[in-house]
Structure formats: structure tokens, C-alpha cells
Amino acid sequence: MKKKTYSEKFLLDLYRKMVLIRQFEERVKFLFLEGIMPGTIHQCQGQEATAVGVCAALKEDDVITSTHRPHGHCIAKGLPVREMMAELFGKTIGCCKGKGGSMHMGDLARGIVPAVAIVGGGTPIAAGIGLAFKLRKEKRVAVCFMGDGAANEGVFHEAVNMASIWDLPVIYVIENNRYGASTPVEKVFRVKNISERAAAYGIPGLTVDGNDPLAVYEAARQAVERAREGKGPTLLELNTYRITGHSRRDPALYQPEQEKRDAKANEPIKRFAGYLTGEGIVMGTELEDILKEVDAEIEAAVENAMLSPDPKPEDALEDMFVE
């Protein structure tokens, strides 16, 4: 963690959001394992600092696109867990009326495009959003979250190149968790850092410790300022690690045991807690209180979701696009 002057409120807000993401994901995991929740999930335990650090640099009217692993991005951008939990249960009070589920979660009113589960699918959408902002002369930015695997999709190159030549206000954020599903990044990339690919488009590329929320925030803040000033996109690579399976049925046996132990020792919440207490910013008891508050908020969301009404069959005919 870099030592710099931040307000206690700002630091605790980062910590609370990371804990909220982690506890939400853990609670959801067990709801699925118990057979209580329908559908499927792709979770982000271990990647909390990437979402929180980036979104801390955004304004309320900025827009993000997400992936098949969207829960952390949604929470970091301000989507209430009450609405998210209801969405996962397929309830009408969910953020997408129960029609999106885990892989299509979002809320345009809060600047969250419902997640795109197609790998790399958010890259051209973010470029389109950035183009709209530019044409309207709005000082807004679009952030496109993606995994390392998305950087090898053809549409990634097309979208980033277009954003570059038109100087669009877009930040492309690669959450490099070292695995595309079960394939290690070193088997599919020859470059040392994926951010090096930015040179091909004539834009800045930066690789950052994705487990340090302050490092992520500072990198994102500079990229966002650059975009708002009309200087075009930035490619950010945030190195992190997924300390869970690719999806709910994945035991992650492809991850070496020592690698997993090292990752858990370096995970962002534990590290940031150590920074906050080590610098004397907070006491350990304050962090314990945050955990209790978060758990209570999540349990209330679960209870509310389970007691809320299911959609009616005819609801499937609403929200349809018809020419």
C-alpha cells in the first residue's frame, strides 16, 4: 500500500465495499450449494479490490459494462445487495425483475449496463457508450471490465482500436486473475503484461497490483481524468487472483496448491485490513463491526428475497422488443 493522505471515510468505504462483495459472494455460494437458489453463478472472491478501486474513481453518472462475473462490479458501482439478492432468486423486485439473473445483472439508472456474459462482449458496447458521450459533449466516461481471456477475442482488438482512433472516453479494465476458465494466462499470451498491447493502439497501457485498492484507485483516477479531458482511452491491467472456481461446479483443481496458498495470503481484504490497522487509521474492533453490519445487511436481503413474490407466467411477455 502506498502511503498517501486519504480521509478515514474514504478508506473505510473502500474496505466496507470489499467486505460487502466478499460476504455477498460467500453467502450466495452456500445458497447455491444448499439448493435454495436457482440458476448458476460465476464469483469473484479475491478480486474485490479491482472493482472497488476502479469504481471509487467514477462519478454517479459514469457507466460500466460487466461480464459473466458481475457481482463485485455491481456492488462497487452502487447496486444495493437487496435488489441483487432478489434478482438471483428470480423475484420481481430484483434489479432486472428476476429476468437477468447472475450473468445479466445491472441497472442502467445506476450506470450499470446489464452484464454481458459473452466473453469480450462488453468491449464494443463500452466504445458505443463512449461515442455517445463524446457526440453529446458530456463529461462522462465508460469503464469496460473484462477478464484476461477477453483480451484474446477478436472484438477486443476492434473495439479498443476504434476507441483509440476516435479518442473515446473509455477505460478498458482487464482483471487478470491468471486463468481464462481453467487455462493459465502464460499458455495464451506471449507478452509479459497484457497492458503492453496498448502500444498497438497508440494509447497508454498500465499494469497494476490489482490486490491493492489504493493502487487501483490511483491508476483508474488518472485514466478517468485523461478520458474526461478528451484524450482518449486507457488500457489497465489489474493483476489479481480468483480464490474460487470459475463457476459453482468448478473445484479449481488446475490451480497449484502452493499458488492458492500464496494467493490467499495476498488477498486484498486481509492486506487492506493490515494496512488500516498498521497505520493506526482504525482499530481491529472497528473492522469487526463493519463485518457484523455487512452480514446483517446480507441476511436481511436474503430474507426479503425469499419472502418476495415470484413472477407470473404472463410477466415473460413484458419488456419485449417488438418491431
Summarize the structure.
The chain has 323 residues and is of the alpha/beta class. The protein has helices at 8-33, 48-55, 71-77, 81-88, 122-135, 154-165, 213-228, 257-265, 268-278, 284-307; strands at residues 63-65, 142-147, 170-176, 179-180, 183-184, 205-209, 234-239.
List keywords for this structure.
323 residues, alpha/beta, 5-stranded parallel β-sheet, two-stranded antiparallel ribbon, 7 strands
Question: Explain this structure to me?
Answer:
This protein has a single domain, classed as Thiamin diphosphate (ThDP)-binding fold, Pyr/PP domains (Rossmann fold), CATH 3.40.50.970. Helix content is 42%, strand content 10%. The chain has helices at 8-33, 48-55, 71-77, 81-88, 122-135, 154-165, 213-228, 257-265, 268-278, 284-307, and strands at residues 63-65, 142-147, 170-176, 179-180, 183-184, 205-209, 234-239. Strands 1-2-3-7-6 form a five-stranded parallel sheet, sandwiched between helices. A two-stranded antiparallel ribbon has the order 4-5. Helix 1 packs antiparallel against helix 9 (268-278), helix 2 (48-55) packs parallel to helix 3 and helix 2 runs parallel beside helix 7.
